[in-house]
């Protein structure tokens, strides 16, 4: 009788078990998250029921949900500014081995003349999302996954919203992916259903709590920032680059808040939380898309996850031996 009850409880637990993958915002640093996710899915055989992402995370999760990591690697490591911006507000300059951005005064001037409210436009990204994420992949995800969710910021109502793939048509959902990535005022300010929307990271960089509220019992979280600041930030030498630094600072504070709230929610609900940070600060500006760097970051992410799990496995073995 006890054996039957034990087996019954195991069946119930397996039905209630739901694993989620959460990926934070982080621009070009998303390549690092791709490497971590590749190791977790291919080597650790993690089968995720649910995926949640913000900004660059929202771009990654669609292809991870279809388990097409090879396609994702090709897309992400070949991203250039022209694939993102239809009007690029940045000029990338080099000083020695270091790349930095400054304002493209000409394009910004045209934006002011046209009475636009943003320095740049990201309609090229909108086109690329539909080119790379197909209707067939959308249908596959809806048929096989419990949920895939992107985070957006409703600026008109001053709130964060979470958009599930199960609630929208293919065209609408592609729009929400694009909106989740729109880092205003440097990218497009989108209008949808009478409201103005922007990058989900302006309200929630790491949607851990939302994954838990949607039923996740174990959550792997890829955070595209180092756990501890190792070096002083270099503040901008002109108002435009200083604005970028200030935005980065504010998003860092939002991210820390999200992680704290996520940890509390996990503790209260008995959810297992696995956090994967970057071991060091990858870049001072995540809006620079450099192929060589992104290939390197992908490899670093894979190796970091491999090393982390090797250490965890060793600790577990020692724990089995020791009393």
Low-confidence stretches: 1-14
Seen as an oligomer or otherwise, the chain set is single chain
Proportion of strand residues: 15-25%
Label the overall shape: globular
- The helix count comes to 12
SSE pattern: HEHEHHHEEHHHEEHEEHEHEH
Helix/sheet category: alpha/beta
Number of strands: 10
Overall residue-averaged pLDDT value: 87
**C-alpha end-to-end distance:** 31 Å
Radius of gyration, in Å, reads: 20 Å
The largest sheet is:
8 strands, mixed
Helix content: 40-55%
Task: Describe the structure concisely for a colleague.
It contains 12 helices and 10 strands. With 323 residues, the protein is of the alpha/beta class. Strands 1, 2, 5, 6, 7, 8, 9 and 10 form an 8-stranded mixed beta sheet that branches. Strands 3-4 form a two-stranded antiparallel sheet.
